[in-house]
């Protein structure tokens, strides 16, 4: 068996993984990226509408800063996020976007002078200043107080990923494409690389590394209807879970995006609504203002998706050939705007629906979109349980999204986390803890285990089909662990997944094709996906409240008294049928923004007594400070700069700063 | 409202696939036919997955985004290169012939190694912003300004998804394996246009000023005809050729 040595092994070639590799490489460490597909084809490329960073350049963004981005993100998370990490994130996002601007991303820019925009269904004329001309512009997105989503037309992720990949190539970082990590090598305390399968030949090889980073994105493909790419099967999170040591955080927190086209489930960006698009029902009625008078179409995604499903359940959906849906109307934005700023949307409509959104309505319905949960890490991106294991991006629960992510915060997280985790891994490699004392017997043991697992599948005679089990898992998740959840359905899902897990042990392959054998791939992946699906379903069953995207019809209120805590799932043994759940309490007394109403969605929640106590404490601190600036006020409430690498601590300059 | 036409009885599609598994010493390239009942709104993504799940689980092909934006699923569809994921079967005749993209290393059946080819091209043409002190950019300060129109022009050229259709459609690329193709030349024009890239015309000439570069193009225009992103490839190559001729003088 071939053994490859490196300092840093990054599993996943999207934005987070490549940025982390670049960071470690810059610090002088050897880094290798493993990717299921050519890196530029990673799912990061599918991000359309924008990246949140509080630059505050254009008119709609003026006055924006880290404080507003922080508050929007915490409210969006329904107070599930780690607030210190949200501070690290919102502080670093402007730096991330400026770095990418220098590296070559063609961000759309502010054009001085008058232009027409669409707000609340009406055309308005605004004027951009001379001072902002040529700086990075931004668009409106849901759940935000300012226009903060910086964009490249509606191909933002594509442009970012190409620039990032090209910089990784410039830095000489090898990307080993079509490689799948099958198991993390570890001794119970320390991770030291991975056993990897070559998807061109089917061979197994070992990568030995001081630091290993999971950056494999989300696991949307456990659902039948998902906007995710077909590679988003969560294998990085799954192999972390299979260590039995690393924990996965908040797996039940699954985001459903309001506007996936029907029936293909392909995303059309939130930018459609941010730029002024509307949601209509069967009667052509704009229904969102009936439910959400303040934010309307631009409430957070969890709220809009729920309202859409509620409206369909009330009989207001459109009966289409592929089931019920609603309409997204961007006709009012005009041809010129759509052809410049929503061109990928136009292409998707043309090829997959045969319609032109300039003159026709787009059939949409919410679909699984994002995994807020993932490998639980500390603020540096390091697993608290398994040393040497890191995670970044959607694969991680770092945790800036809590129970609902804001649009545009995903690509922002990938790059920011990549910058920070790249440095953390370099620090770890440089430290005494980083040096590796590895026995080849350990590597052999893991390689043998994986070889035996594959051989067992290949020789299985139980008669079950991997494709059929995958389909049943996806149906179960979409039917019972979707937007509206209730105890009985979740209990049914947990039991159905247990049955499927037993059946998945009895798969028989019809093909013994030499090489990678796609049927064998489907078989070993579904065994792992079922474990992730069970973490989602079981975690959702136990969480008897509604928070963010996790909505329990039988427990419709957010319950801060009992559930202001993060779920931590681990898999106790290979033969286990359920995860072990632990909970990590979120301490209100350390929060900068104590829990309250989000500004949209249900106003009714069960408050924690600490919330008002903490608010009184905050008021006292602020009063004692007297007349001061926002930086000192923030520092007094919840210091965070010391958590960042030194070179990321500087203040972000903005247009109109006092000179 | 729904414009998808309803057919009376579903067609029975005959899908012929050029197959070969290089990992199997006994495999020889051959066509294999599969019969499949057409469904409404069926794409080749749906059809190929159905073949794999119900008829032949060993069939190899590549899809990632299945939304026409990642460039994984380029293949030859009834003789023409295109993206399989966004090709609707209703736009094709009852008999559909699929083959892997020529010009790339075959992984198996319809799967080819475009990633390796594209990485080689990127390394050779150095398709990244070349600027002094890029590692020491002060990211606390305001970004450099750029004209909005220029940013849009750059994105226009950057919409390339490296699917390889232009290589499969190119006479020169099929004859000369070291030709960088429209995908490579387009990327050079993209960085040439970008004021952040400090390379001179003479430096670009070193990269593409020969028959493996801009002077290899025979202006057959297959690249532009089959580009799934409708990029103005012929115009870019013509522009680059004029610039390079002027540089060589």
Description:
The complex is a heterodimer of chains A (659) and B (249). By secondary structure, chain A is of the alpha/beta class. Chain B has 249 residues and is α+β, with helices and mostly antiparallel strands. In chain B, the strands form 2 sheets. In chain B, strands 2-1-5-3-4 form a 5-stranded mixed beta sheet. In chain B, strand 6 and strand 7 form a beta hairpin. The longest helix of chain B is centred in the last third of the chain and has 16 residues, at 233-248. The N and C termini of chain B lie far apart (60 Å). At the A-B interface, helix 3, helix 4, helix 10 and helix 15 of A face helix 2 and helix 3 of B.
The average pLDDT of chain B is: 94
Instruction: Please give the largest β-sheet of chain A.
Output: 7 strands, mixed
In CATH, the architecture of the largest domain in chain B is: Orthogonal Bundle
Based on CA atoms alone, the radius of gyration of chain B comes out at 21 Å
Q: What about the largest sheet of chain B?
A: 5 strands, mixed
Number of helices of chain B: 9
Distance between the termini of chain A: 62 Å
CATH topology tier name of the largest domain in chain B: Fumarate Reductase Iron-sulfur Protein, Chain B, domain 2
Q: Based on helices, strands and strand pairing, what is the structural class of chain A?
A: alpha/beta
